Amino acid sequence: MTALLELQDLKVHFPGRGGRSAPVTRAVDGVSLTIHQGETVAVVGESGCGKSTTGNAALGLAPVTGGRILFEGRDLATLRPAERRALWQQMQVVFQDPVSALNPRMSIARSIAEPLVINGWPADKVRARVDELMELVGLNPDQRDRRPTALSGGQRQRVVIARALALSPKLVICDEPVSALDVSIQSQILNLLLRLQRDLGLSYLFISHDLSVVRHIADRVCVMYLGIVVEEGPVTEVFAHPHHPYTRALISAIPRPDVSRRDRGSRILLKGDLPSPLNPPPGCPFSTRCPKAMPECSAARPPLEQIGKDRQVRCIAPD
Amino acid sequence: MSLLEVTDLAVAAGSLQLVDGVTLDVRPGEVVALVGESGSGKSLTALSVIGLLADSLRITRGSIRFDGVPVHGAGGQDMADLRGNGLAMIFQEPVSSLNPLMPIGAQVAESLIVHGRASAADAAQQAVRMLGRVGIPDPERRAHQLPAELSGGMCQRVMIAAALISRPRLLIADEPTTALDVTIQAQILDLIRDLAEEEGTAVLMITHDMGIVAEMADRVCVMYGGRVVEQGDVHDIFRQPRHPYTAMLLRTIPRLDHPPKQELFAIPGNVPSPRNWPQGCRFKTRCDRATAQCDATPALSEGAHRVACFHPLSEGMT
Fold first, then answer.
1. Chain A residue closest to B234 (CA)?
2. What does the domain layout of chain B look like in residue ranges?
3. In a shared domain, residues A156 and A273
4. What is the mean predicted confidence (pLDDT) over A67-79?
């Protein structure tokens, strides 16, 4: 089976301020991942780990310094601009904040219709398609002339999802799609994403800092720390038996809505802050906070190694 | 004897009610979580207690007593004394809550100096000690740095140090970890809990995260639509929620022990804005137990586990 999206050793480096000698920020420093049709791959990690930059690079919104991005086996870098644009129709995005993603002066129908209009759809077809999309995401087509400000946060995110689906993409990159929503609304939107995937065979690249949400919606998870993947595998296995000390700490840090778990011994508390991506520690970037760090850890960056059937971990002494 | 007693508090912006009859209490040394979604009135309740409501907002009803003394109506010097001696607050955004032009040591020391509790030199020394206690490495040197030289997690530690240096009896924490990464959040929650335990400080923790409530709180106060809908011991709230909103909220959270990719329980409808609050029970439009009776406003029941509902879940139902 050909992968839908494949990132091979993707690198996004941003030049520092102050000319050629300034330090380079290695926002993404060699990320590889594969998404098949109908699959959800989540990228998780804390701020500055490069998860959003990874998604942006796939969308052409961040400069690719190295590596390859393949969509259905075709290398984006080798395509002519027209071909690349056609291919990007297959790849859409839903961002965190539905307020800034929608033009407040446009009716929601016009916002949803925009990709269709740009692609030269005739007016009558546009109208029918917009109605269809609104129903698909659980909006009443009677609301088509309303402005985004007249809608709640959850409804606005439905509008953004409808617009992303207008051109029937195969892949939707969801960057923190429920983080700005109220708790009681999050589950509505997660259910919608799950249903759309089932009905339309969509694939998601799901970027999130919220591990409970990721555990619920993803098939596979890719844990990032300071620009690199430290662990990757099926979501249930990674959560049940994390191999990388960072993954373990991350999972144990999630506050759980469970009063029987109030003993503190079960939590791994990491010391210190995330190091600056401008100046990452040598060797394993997690070594400065790792409870199991050894002198060898700061000597060289460990390779991402296969563990078991389909898991990978980047640690010289995995759990 | 309660340390903080809020009774029937109402806050309005002009004719628009935003908080509508909140009653809650915090006892010495306990952690009370005030939970709610956007527009529930949880933050305005906290700001009313500490006297920091925006000028456009007014307390229109009710009373707030701290250590038996009325707070609401206390103006000028009285309120300043209260903030110096009994009450302190930390906010969600540590970076914007600190003065960007003032070294962090001076910001931590400020309340001691302003309230005449220490000389400048003594306050500076105490500030360095306090910075060390909240886990700032190398506090002597760091005390001279500006907030911009510190990470978000470090800035939140500075704010906690500034709040706790005057040994308040009640710390109000408004979403203190929402802007932080999860591994840093765990550090800050542990820090708040340890310091509160050591000093016997009571904490009123405002949050939307039921996970944080379960791990931190002794008692819980659930707000919806400007009112308290349920209040009780944290174990009772999680094991036997009685208000349909609390019960539904707990069911809607994705959990690590659930099978993945299954439909989650979802509360229908939207969180109503204060402009669109329904008559009577504010949750009735989203509630599967609502009847015509819910067009009237349910009162908060008495006792240890209180609920404001005409059709509460009976104990042992969930």
1. A259
2. 95-167, 242-307
3. no
4. 94
